[in-house]
Amino acid sequence: MQNISKWWKSGSPWIWLNAGAVAISMVTVIGLLTLILVRGLGHFWAADIIEVRYQDSNGAQTMIGELIRKEQVDLKNLGKEASERGNGERWLLKTGNRELSADFRWIEQANIVSVSTPKELVVLERKEWGDFYGYLISVSEKDTLVADGGEAWDEFTRRVERVEGLGKKTHQLERVEMGAINYQLEQLRLKRRKLELDGNDTPAALEKINVKVQKLGREFDSYMVDVRALNKEIERDSALFQIMDGQKVTISIAQVVEGLRPNSMSTVQKIGNYISTFVGFVSDNPREANTEGGVFPAIFGTVVMVLTMSIIVTPFGVIAAVYLREYASQGIVTKIVRIAVNNLAGVPSIVFGVFGLGFFVYFLGGSIDSLFYPEYAPAPYLGTSGMMWASLTLALLTLPVVIVSTEEGLTRIPRNLREGSLALGATKAETLWKVVLPMASPSIMTGLILAVARAAGEVAPLMLVGVVKLAPELPLDGNFPFLHIERKFMHLGFHIYDVGFQSPNVEAAQPLVYATAFLLVLIIVILNLAAILLRNNLREKYRGIAG
What is the pLDDT of residues 347-386, one digit of tens each? Predict the structure, then answer.
């Protein structure tokens, strides 16, 4: 008993308790990341497609699809026919062909007669209606048979590649060339409206604008002719498939993103397809209410928003910390300000979103519109949710973290360094700029790291001040002034919420939730690692001086 009392007083129990808490935290984090990694990245693997023959109350049937999972169930709850069989296993198959039948189906393992993986089975990733499963019968060009039988697959893959190349040309014309023209036309319309409001709409000024509008209109019409010709070529080819109920379906190759026969692919081919599919997921735009396609706009919006927020919050946080530590008298008012800053860090993020909507968007943005951008009326320019207001809101949200971290760094700098600089003739401002702040830079970077980690994962305030389900344009493009702070944007965090909780097809969207969550964690880690490396370099640089 005495030994236990001595052991308790030594503090060893608290050391073991802390070690256990750290171990549990590490195991939890690693387990969560492993779950996200396996379920998210496994979605891009070209899994085998099975053909299941089974017998139920409706007679002999055939089902084609991808086996998603197996689970044990109480068959008594599945109907009168299964009431005497007790527990059993059922399979969930992704049968695709969403426009013709249910996308996912359950079958009882006890009813299965046979399972096979025919090499001829084809899975198509389409622009609409999700995946398609079936047997390729023939390929046609303008209703004229081109290939069938054993030659159909090679011809089909060639024509899919052809359509993909034409699609890239069409995208270049529509989104880049014609998009730039539309942007210039909108700017000319606003310029005309501004001349009218200022009373400077003279015939000469309006004629100058009209000449530019007509020139751009001719360029737009020329591109439109090219786009129509390309679309006609894209819509030329079609393929005939047979699905699991024996029905024959014709699919336009223009709707096909990719066609595979996974049962006949080698492991090396599947690895190559896996890499290309993942790259497509990262670089493509979303489709089908965000449940298909890629997440590039969300990645882009997240990174640009975090970088913009960092550029805003760092100088404001550092200036506030410098004033509180170096210039403000350490009295009751300063203490109250510090308490307020610390309490501000605990305010729920949605409150910042409401403040950002009311102050930044409606008050500040609306006032700027009425003073400087009247030509946009009645549509708002800055008086609506956008990239700038979202970045300012998150900068306000993370400001306390930067202030506290910077203050702690300023406190740790030895007083004799300040006095030595002043003794050599430097002013207080020069001492602060050339001695104090460089040595406090590791602490500033620590605050920035914490700010980035929190801001990148916030969703609630962004839903009020800038983020949308699908943004038609990126906030950064090739049109002057290049960074369009007024535009709405997509965000990985909101994308996870939208796909996971607002999707009409939960089973189909579930893998994308894990994959997008993995990308969000990866981006946060990359941004933090970059800041950590910079902080460590700064720490090594000024360590000798501090010593």
Answer: 889 999 999 999 999 999 999 999 999 988 888 898 899 9
Give tens-digit pLDDT for 40-64: 888 888 889 999 998 877 778 888 9
Cβ count within 10 A of residue 188: 16
Q: What pTM does this model have?
A: 0.86
The mean per-residue pLDDT over the stretch 191-220 comes to 91
Are 238 and 253 contacting, i.e. CB atoms less than 8 angstroms apart?
yes
- The b-or-e profile of 314-340 (16+ CB within 10 A means b, else e) is beebbebbbebbbeeeeeeeeeeebee
What are the Cα distances from residue 234, in Å, to 43, 146, 162, 166, 500? 29, 16, 8, 7, 34
Q: What dotted CATH number matches 296-546?
A: 1.10.3720.10
Per-residue model confidence (pLDDT) at position 80: 45
Q: Which sequence spans correspond to the domains of the chain? A: 42-135+256-283, 143-235, 296-546
**Pairing mode, strands 237-242 and 131-141:** antiparallel
> Do the beta carbons of residue 306 and residue 530 sit within 8 Å?
no
Please name the residues in contact with 344: beta carbons below 8 A apart, sequence gap of 6 or more.
Answer: 399, 400
